[in-house]
Amino acid sequence: MVAIGLISFSAYLWHQPLFAFARITAIGPPSIWLMAGLAVVSLALAAVSWAWVEQPFRGKSARFLPQRGMLFAASIAGVAAFTILGWYGHEQEGFPERSIIRNLKEPMIDARYERFRTWEVLDGVVPARFSLREFSKSPDTAKVLLLGDSHSKGLFNAFYQNESSFLGLEVRRLPLNFDCYAEAEKSTEQCLAELESSAPELFASASHVLFAARWHRPGRLPSLEVVPLAMKFRGIKPVIIGQTMEYETEGPVIIADIARAVTYDGSTPFPIKEANTVFFEERSELALVTNKEVRDLAVRLGVPFRDRQALICNDLSEQCTGVTPEGHAVTYDYGHWTLAGSAHFGQVMAARDWLNLP
């Protein structure tokens, strides 16, 4: 315990970069075994730096850099080397010639960056956000209001990025507060009043309303029992969109694992077919079961149902599109669509006339 105490400050300094780089280089969270191993490595490095760095500063002899002047000189040289390396890397924008950088371009993705990008239009990063607050006055288009959670955002981006393929549609989106319908003290009418008050112009002009969400979350399916029919009574035609496909292993992790297995370096095409087969094998059973429950509910209510999973997966070929034919990742996590994914699935929707509004 005394020995650990002596090297504890060095261990504190060493563990942070080791743990940080382990998280940075891994697509998913590092395993507990890797982190435990790095903790042991931190102690070993701490013992070395205690003997060769701390002790010389305290006036005791050491085999390596025994004199304080030598230690200072080595430290200054190290700082200078890292400064020059950092400056060069900054100027070169991260050494783009490295194979690992080529890997991270396509179909590898920066999942966090992709998630932010998918909100650009709806959050106002793109100026088009301000034209989405109301429908046009044109009598020649269906006014479609998309309601749901973050998974409805991917569907909105599919329409938005393929606008020329959906000339007869105007699509606007609003978040649907499912929690409101789960609160015992609030009635359905109160919840609907709150929703409609958030964008009265949109509800006043809407001809259709689409419901799209991660339906297996608590309280979601009960809301489908009442909200679509309530919209129907208001003269707005409802359509229920099924559960999107989800995967037991997140999409970027699947792709990274395949890339490592085939030592992909960007110089050859990525094995898209093999990847899409793995995505099929990784399908979430919960997502499959939930989709059937939503379909059955829509049938019972007499509300049109559109199968979102059918856009993604093919049971005959046993493949799910996890990587587009152009080599782009379609999900940035377990199931949310990237912009590339939305663009691809929007094309599929248009080609199949998938929405086919009533």
List the helices and strands and how they pair.
Blueprint: H1 2-25, H2 32-57, H3 68-91, H4 99-105, H5 111-117, H6 120-123, E1 142-148, H7 150-161, E2 169-175, H8 178-182, H9 188-198, H10 200-205, E3 208-212, H11 220-224, H12 227-233, E4 237-241, H13 251-261, H14 272-281, H15 285-301, E5 305-306, H16 309-312, E6 313-314, E7 319-320, H17 339-352
Parallel strand pairs: 1-2, 1-3, 3-4, 4-5
Antiparallel strand pairs: 6-7
Considering the chains and any ligands shown, give keywords for the structure.
358 residues; alpha/beta; Rossmann fold; two-stranded antiparallel ribbon; 17 helices; 54% helix; elongated
What can you tell me about this protein's structure?
This protein is an alpha/beta fold. It has two domains: 2-105, no CATH class; 111-352, Rossmann fold (3-Layer(aba) Sandwich), CATH 3.40.50.1110. It contains 17 helices and seven strands. The strands form two sheets. It has a five-stranded parallel sheet. Strands 6-7 form a two-stranded antiparallel ribbon. The longest helix has 26 residues, at 32-57. It is elongated. The model has no long low-confidence stretch (mean pLDDT 88).
Helix content: 40-55%
Relative strand content:
5-15%
How many domain units? 2
Largest sheet, strands/sense/barrel: 5 strands, parallel
Please name the CATH architecture of the largest domain: 3-Layer(aba) Sandwich
Span from first to last CA?
74 Å
Number of helices: 17
Helix and strand run: HHHHHHEHEHHHEHHEHHHEHEEH
What is the CATH superfamily classification of the largest domain?
SGNH hydrolase
Shape, please? elongated
Radius of gyration: 27 Å
pLDDT averaged over residues? 88
- Spans of at least 5 consecutive residues with low confidence: none
